[in-house]
Structures are given as structure tokens and as C-alpha cells.
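tRNA guanosine-2'-O-methyltransferase
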Amino acid sequence: MRGYFGIGAEEISKPMNLGALMRTAHAFGASFFFTVNAHPKVREAYNSDTSRSFDHMAYYPYDTLDDLRLPKGCALVGVELTDDAVELPRFQHPSAAAYILGRERGSLSPALLSRCAHVVKIPTKFCINVGLAGALVMYDRLLAHGGYPARPIMPGGPPPEMTERLKQRT
């Protein structure tokens, strides 16, 4: 996989959501995790973070948006269901990115959206759980940067390179 990424949430308030998102970030190989203005009770996140991600990736709890610091060259990518956001399947992920999701019952703040280099949306009819949204973004990044070959043209069919070799024989 090329580059690196981190993922975080603004104003997250449910410890189980935070723990699940952190565990998923660890599973997908995130370099760091961060929160902006998280509710104090999210410190209980370890209850759902069975991989103990705190032991495996850096965690940065920023009290305010002004405190948010990212590595030089790391693009902030907002994940928000807005009309002008790029649909995730059409998005070219930066090699160095920090993805930020909104709170459970609301959207990313206008101040945070203004700091984003990119805003993407998951093409769903309505907002989904923050942990699931994070997993989908990380999975899409893995597909985009993971070096996987193109999918077969037909369901269950051979990979495209095999199809080309078959065409050349006939």
C-alpha cells in the first residue's frame, strides 16, 4: 500500500462507536487516529476496541479544531453527505490523508469543512453509522492504493489479463 493515512471524528460522543472505529482503523493499517472535541465519556472506548489499538497506532485527542495538527503534506478529507461532495467510488485518494467523520447525530462543522482539502460522500440515501462509514472509506482506500488488479468483467470470470490472453489465442 502506498502512502499513509489517519482517520478521526469530530465531536464523537458514543464510546462504542469510537472503539469500533479505532479497531477498524487498526485492522486497515491506519498510521494514526484522532478526535476533535470528543465527549469526555469516549474514554470508555476500550470496551469495544478489542484489538487495543492504542498500543498499535498513535492517538491524538484534539480539544478544539484550532488544535488540530496534521503531518506536512497530509490532506484533510471530510466525509460528509453533501450535494457538492465527490462520491467515494469516483474519488482519487491522496497518498497521505487524514479522513474526518462527523458526530453521530449531525454533520461536520462548517469550520471543519472549510479546512478540508477534499470532501467525499458515500453514495447512500441517508447517513449511516460513523463506524460503518469509516470502514467503507478505509476499504475504498485499500482498493485504490492496495495494488489489486482490475476485477473480472463477468461475474466469477477470469481476471482481465487472462481474458486478453484467451483473445490472442483465437
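thats it. DSSP finds four helices and seven strands in the chain. The mean pLDDT is 85. bye
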